[in-house]
Write a structure and sequence with these properties.
Distance between the termini: 24 Å
Shape: globular
Largest sheet: 10 strands, mixed
Structural class: alpha/beta
CATH superfamily of the largest domain: Glycogen Phosphorylase B
Strand content: 15-25%
Strand order of the largest sheet: 5-6-4-1-7-8-9-12-11-10
Length: 549
Amino acid sequence: MIGYNHAHSQENRVRLDSIVEELLPDRKLIISSNRGPVEYHWNEENSNLEARRGSGGVVTAISAASRFTNPVWIACAMTEGDRRLASETTSEYTDWSQGDQRYRLRFVTPSKQEFNDYYGAISNPLLWFLQHYMWDAPRTPNITRETRKAWLSYASVNARMAEAISDEVDRDSQDTIIMLHDYHLYLCPGILRERLRRNALITHFIHIPWPGPGYWGLLPAEFRERIFSSLCSCDILGFQTALYARNFLGTCSELLPGAKVDTAASSVTLGGHTLRVRVYPISIDVGALIELAESIEVREHRQRLRARCGDYTIVRIDRVEPSKNIVRGFKAFEQLLEDYPEFRGRVKFLAFLVPSRLSVEEYKKYIEEIMVSAGWINTRFSDGAWQPIELFVGENYLRAIAAMQLYDVLLVNPLIDGMNLVAKEGATVNQNNGVIVLSEGAGAAEQLREGALVVSPADVIGTAEALHRALEMSLEERQLRAEWLRKSVAAEDIAMWLYHQLDDIREILANPAPLSMHPVPDKGNAEPVHLEEKTATQARVAGTDSFVV
């Protein structure tokens, strides 16, 4: 199956290379995001700035484009090293290259207070919490004078980013494609449309969920209307799932005065400009992940972790934040041990947790809840020789990959997630034909539900039963599901994520009129995806995730 994944990865890369070579040699590509592809850190020992390449999927995907053009990547200075580089560099951007990847990197450097307001008050937690349904609406958020002051900083940083982008657009006469990313830069498209002296094609991809209109009502009208109208200044707005795209269309219909929403064409027209709303589920670099999983370092971690496994091993890998639903996952495991005592002493739950945003009070409280929950379960069920839950706290990606290779069950049960790439990574590298128990709140469920056991994130009993079903599942069904998941992820990897965006851009460039009809799928009318290679005696039970064998 690894060979199959490699073959798919190579085919997808060829398709991506072809469209990049067609579109980009004569066009300028500008990418902008809060965090850049490289961070700089000052090394006191040798008194040098050291560059550390970002490991995100966006960086990996755009690297394909960098072989045919020399993209400009505009980002906020995140570290003192970034700020130092920006202040000491004589030119406006720094050339960075590694292998066949190359960028012209330009940092925007707001004041520390301005950045803290933009990032630490508005982006996180206000927008992040809102878009993950994490506010306790009867109590929070409270839009105070401090919030409104921070909103001005958010607008100011977006204006700085837009100014840097428009400077790059006006530097020469090349046609330009601008690709913006995520919730930090919601106001950037609208400012760009006002600043640009000539036309440029603007896309914006939102990596996190987009809630329905009702929840956006928590924000003041002047905040939300400026966000919505700015996003409508794009040519293409991309979402992770069809649900989030439909939510955006509904939001504009309900809360944006003057917007004309065409659900059939998946478009919004505002002020004479038409925005196309599209779905681009982000994915992983399958080939690179498999290569990393076969490395000596991962093998060493795998050998050490084997000693921590049980007869059955459940794994979860998460950042420590409330939306990941870690405590409920532990409660479901506790319910499993209570209802099925035959698994006591035989099943281990290995939880790999990466601390996140500990400066935010809600996050500090949540890590305490996690420790208390795990400690209670271990106290209740441990027999001295066997401890049900083992926590690994800290960021160690190689160890996480090793754990994903070993699971019998991978629990991915977020309340809501833009995508959740752990599910795709686990499906790709697992060596045990492991089963994925996947929350329907994860964006990945839209693609992977056919091969996973899908649960409601708040349903502790249902999740416990799914864990039990996964542990009891026949080898034949495990193999069938695991193979389907591997093929599904390989077919739509990170190369195809970028390819689909460039393909829509190509269509706009060829025909400036609205794109041909690609409506966002109506969940009620969606065609079912069926598991491949079923035997004649297997059939899907309608409306369930069960199989008749």
